[in-house]
Specification:
single chain, 430 residues, alpha+beta, Lipocalin, 2 domains, 8-stranded antiparallel barrel, 9 strands, 48% helix, elongated, disordered N terminus
Amino acid sequence: MTETTAASLYWSALQKIALRFFLLLFLLYIFFNPNGVLPYTEVIAEYLIQPFHTIIPWLSKNLLNRPEPVTTFTNGSGDTTYDYLVILFITTLSVIGALIWSVLDRKARNYNKLFYWLCVILRYYVGITMLSYGFVKVIKLQFPAPSPGRLLQSFGNASPMGLAWTYMGYSRGFNYFTGIAEVSCGLLLFFRKTTTLGAVLGLVVAGNIMAINYCFDVPVKLLSTTLVVMSLFLLAKDARRLINFFFLNKTAPPSEIEPHRFRRKWKNITLDVLKYVMLIYLLITNVYGDIQASAQYGEAAKKPHFYGIYDIHNYVLNKDTIAPLVTNTMRWRKLIVGSSGYATVKKMNDSTQNYTFREDIKAHTIVMFTDADTSAKYTFKYSEFGKDSLVLKGGLGLDTLNISLKKFDMKNFKLINRGFHWVNEFPYNR
């Protein structure tokens, strides 16, 4: 759509077919990927989408003849096989629906009102998503600072997504920068007069998110790509104006942004009130919810008493002192205690084992066990000497252990101690 067609009396056949297709596609996508902005909507959406957990696998097996059954559904990853099949499903429905609609509604002259309200829906969907994306960065909840385990991990052993999370998590300032850009985009999209600016900013911000997801294998590729497409759709009616202004050095006339109003005044007032109530609700719930989450498990959360990295200085198994040989697959080399009740043991051959870590400061006890076998537990009594020395006495089953540990100062890592410098006489690239 150009600026002359947004309110044109007659649309071309191609414009009408495009509107039918994108309206169906976007509404179906939003149905399968709700923002969860209103209370209990995610519960309702899960109830409505649940039948598709049967329909999509059935279509995959019987219509597409895929040999592998679909058993994993949308989770922390939004790029599961199921999600791609859903995209194929709604795209197919949109094509079929647009063709049927085109046959049944051949005499339609334009879809100005449908186009307007579709843009309103997309503005709010992208805006709400951007507010959610932005506040988890401003509050610094999405990308935590490098943990003790991450600081010890080699670049080569990090996943591409892990590398991206470390890159983003290292800098609080960069989180503020990207978060404020996303929040600004979200707020701009809530108002008609700033929609074009919001969509331009959305294209840049969502494009950056999409690039990170593609280049670092982050499994949110489908959503970020859809946000880019939605931003482009919102810019479509202003395409000629933007091309004139940015590329052709021509006059860009004002955009047609008059709202579609109902005849009854109370309906218009009700919509305005609902809009601002929703916006205030979004701001409060995002900020308050993210602050609460940060205090529970984010960087503002209280760290475990033994949080940090410990070097094993002495390791006695059943009264035998075990030498620190790199060929030994049993002796501990380091104990890495992270947040959220987890710890990692790094052994002499650099293999690692993750444990659930429970500390009782009053009883001076530590219990460690793996998720695979919760009955096999390391049980220790600990003694602290100064600020950085620790002795664990206990064992696992019939084996007794006496382990001396010394805490490693994480400020010794270049990533932590380098900091920011206005003046650099030479590049410091290590």
